[in-house]
Design goal:
Number of domains: 2
Number of helices: 9
Shape: elongated
Radius of gyration: 27 Å
CATH class of the largest domain: Alpha Beta
Largest sheet: 6 strands, mixed
Distance between the termini: 83 Å
CATH architecture of the largest domain: 4-Layer Sandwich
Length: 379
């Protein structure tokens, strides 16, 4: 009798203890208070970033600050995750009012900034429907930096890329003379050198490729056009435009860059051929000018769901920002996208994308949506 009564009380005592634990009042603790203050202070830059994004339209400083939205979004995601871990591990039970206020402080800028930069698109997701390329075509771009005269190192970097077509940016007459050895590997080339940062070159090993120098817009932006012929690398001719838009590092120069992006869009729209736009666009993918370019042309950003690919400044590595881009029309199937560190004498990483020139991409799901997720057929 005694043992059975004791055994009957044990579960009841446990249930009573759980009930008392659940009924513990919500109250502040020292640790919770410290975390509230620290997380509030950490969220202030993100609130500032949100304000900047909503009010940048005619402010050069705000426009430049917009390119760091990614970092604030990822930082806030980390803070929100840390908040959940600390609350769970310490069993913090803050009063509902303060808990709601804290959630608003953290979640509002997090949700807003994530909707702007779409950090999930940096996740590498394999395309399960992709088949083996029938005619692989590799295209690369590299801003070698106008003051980089380490020609042997430049040659080594270009040779290691092993691309079928390479666009070089900020090339001068000195680069042309110093890189003559590349003629053997790339016998077909077009050099439009300048003594400023506008020099461009396209190197290719594809026979029959045609080149043309183009001057776009009122800003007289130099660009190089190439037409890859039908044959070994493509079933149909493919157009390519190598570009270097204005850097928005002075008052109002972002307007010049955005005008140049509109000229690039016009170049894409005037032909039914598949097209590639590649080079240093001096803009991040979440900026309004970039989104307008992809929306008006339905160009596909080859970095989406393949990685973040920060390219500038080179010394910051993955903490930098992606301003070098390879964009393709929807019919071109993207096989791969890469970026890498060249020499320490360049401030840009190179980018390289591999396409299939013989297989049309299955983009039926894009018939109603462009690269920004908005309907391309809506007015």
């Amino acid at each position: 009798m005694g043992s059975s009564s004791l055994g009957g009380k044990a579960p009841q005592e446990v249930a009573t203890a759980k009930t008392h634990a659940k009924k513990q009042p919500r109250c502040w603790t020292a640790g919770l208070g410290v975390w509230f203050v620290l997380s509030f202070l950490a969220s202030i830059p993100a609130w500032g970033a949100m304000y900047v994004h909503r009010n940048w339209s005619d402010n050069s400083l705000f426009e430049m600050a917009n390119h760091t939205q990614w970092h604030f979004a990822v930082g806030m995601l980390c803070i929100c995750l840390l908040d959940l871990i600390l609350r769970w591990s310490n069993r913090w039970r803050a009063p509902w009012m303060s808990r709601t206020l804290h959630a608003a402080i953290l979640l509002i800028p997090t949700v807003y900034l994530c909707s702007v930069v779409e950090p999930w698109t940096a996740l590498k997701i394999p395309d399960l429907q992709a088949s083996e390329p029938t005619k692989p075509l590799s295209i690369a771009s590299w801003n070698v930096f106008i003051q980089n005269h380490e020609f042997k190192m430049i040659e080594k970097s270009i040779e290691s890329l092993d691309a079928d077509v390479i666009v070089l940016i900020e090339v001068t007459p000195e680069h042309r003379k110093g890189l003559m050895a590349l003629n053997k590997m790339y016998p077909y080339s077009k050099w439009s050198t300048r003594t400023n940062t506008q020099g461009l070159a396209i190197l290719s090993r594809i026979p029959g490729i045609e080149f043309r120098e183009r001057i776009l817009g009122q800003s007289q932006m130099l660009s190089l056009e190439a037409v890859i012929p039908a044959g070994e690398y493509a079933d149909e001719p493919i157009r390519l435009l190598g570009v270097h838009t204005a850097s928005p590092n002075q008052n109002g120069r972002f307007r010049v860059r955005d005008e140049q992006l509109l000229e690039i869009a016009a170049w894409v729209q005037k032909s039914n051929l598949e097209s590639i736009v590649i080079g240093d666009l001096n803009i991040t993918p979440w900026s309004d000018g970039f989104k307008q370019l992809t929306a008006s042309t339905r160009l596909v950003d080859t970095r989406r769901y393949r990685g973040y690919f920060a390219t500038w400044p080179c010394g910051l590595g993955v903490v930098g920002i992606p301003i070098d881009h390879a964009l393709v029309t929807p019919g071109l199937q993207v096989i791969d996208r890469e970026s890498g560190f060249p020499t320490i004498d360049s401030d840009h990483q190179w980018i390289r994308t591999t396409l299939d020139g013989g297989t049309k991409a299955d983009r039926s799901r894009l018939d109603s949506q462009d690269d920004t997720g908005k309907s391309s057929k809506s007015p």
